[in-house]
Every structure is written in C-alpha cells, then in structure tokens.
Design brief:
Blueprint (H helix, E strand, L loop, with lengths): L2 H22 L5 E6 L5 E6 L5 E7 L6 E9 L2 E9 L15 E4 L5 E4 L3 E2 L3 E5 L5 E5 L5 E2 H5 L3 E8 L2
Antiparallel strand pairs: 1-2, 1-12, 3-4, 3-10, 4-5, 5-7, 5-8, 6-7, 9-12, 10-11
Length: 160
C-alpha cells in the first residue's frame, strides 16, 4: 500500500473515531445549560420525560423570591408554575383558564397548572442576585458559583 493511501485511510479512521467519541459524550437524554454567547456547555444533566426543574431568584424590583417551575416533555420545556411573594414587573397579575392560584403557609402566591411551551429559555445571570437551579427537587445549586456572573445561560434538552 502506498504511503498516501495509508495516511488517507488512517486520517479517515481517526475522524470517524473522534465523531463517534464526541457523539457518545451526549448520548442519552440531557438537560443542557450552555453559554448562549460562546456555546460552551456548562452542565449536562441526565433527565427523563416529565422531569421537572426550578430556577429561583430574587426579583429585581420587589426584592422577594421568585421560582419558575418547568417540566420536560418529549424534549420540549414547558413553564408549569410560578411561586412568588409580591407583585412587580414581569410577575403574573392574573391567571388564565385552567390555571389555579393558591397561597402557601408563608404567604407565597402559587400559580399551578400552567402549560406554556418555552422554545427559547435563556436566563441572564447577573451580579445583584443569586440564581438557584434544582432538578426534581434536588438540592438547589447557585448558578453564579457554577457559571460566573454576567452570563446568558441557554437551557434546552438533547437526546429526546
């Protein structure tokens, strides 16, 4: 076999091996958190259909906690609920047909039975308030500690 053919075959085999290895790193079903500007994947969390995750932060205007509750369905992300303590910009002021409003033991307002497809979920992790992330009721982790500040974090599913 001549040298050029050998090098060509070797290069092709290496390229195929790299592609297989790279595709294997994201095989399975994952919730992906990545830098929206650079595409760098910060976290890939194994998930299944109907798993839930929450993001909690302090509202920038009324300075009280807000929790957004999401559910994964066939690789899509749906907003299914909100928990908040007072009104402010961007906080729901009315509920829609099928939704329910209830009150928690600590005065929180809980909107449930929401069913809103979120095709492009991005949070801006700033410097003023911490953002906490939790999957299926797991311990909340501080997103600033994991990813830094002034980041645009895109959240999506892969492998469904």
């Amino acid at each position: 076999m001549n040298r050029k053919v050998f090098i060509g075959i070797t290069a092709a085999v290496l390229i195929v091996a790299v592609i297989i290895l790279m595709s294997g790193t994201l095989s399975g079903k994952y919730l992906i958190l990545e830098d929206d500007e650079t595409g760098e994947i910060y976290s890939k969390i194994p998930v299944e259909n109907f798993d839930e995750f929450e993001i909690t932060f302090t509202h920038s205007v009324n300075k009280t906690p807000v929790t957004d509750i999401y559910q994964i369905r066939e690789g899509d992300i749906y907003l299914t609920g909100n928990i908040y303590y007072s009104f402010g910009a961007g906080v729901p002021t009315e509920i829609y047909e099928g939704q329910t409003l209830s009150y928690g033991e600590n005065g929180e307002m809980i909107i449930s039975n929401m069913d809103t497809l979120i095709p492009d979920l991005v949070y801006i992790i700033g410097t003023v308030t911490d953002y906490y992330f939790s999957v299926n009721g797991s311990e909340k982790v501080c997103m600033q500690d994991l990813y830094g500040t002034n980041k645009h974090i895109r959240i999506y599913c892969r492998g469904f």
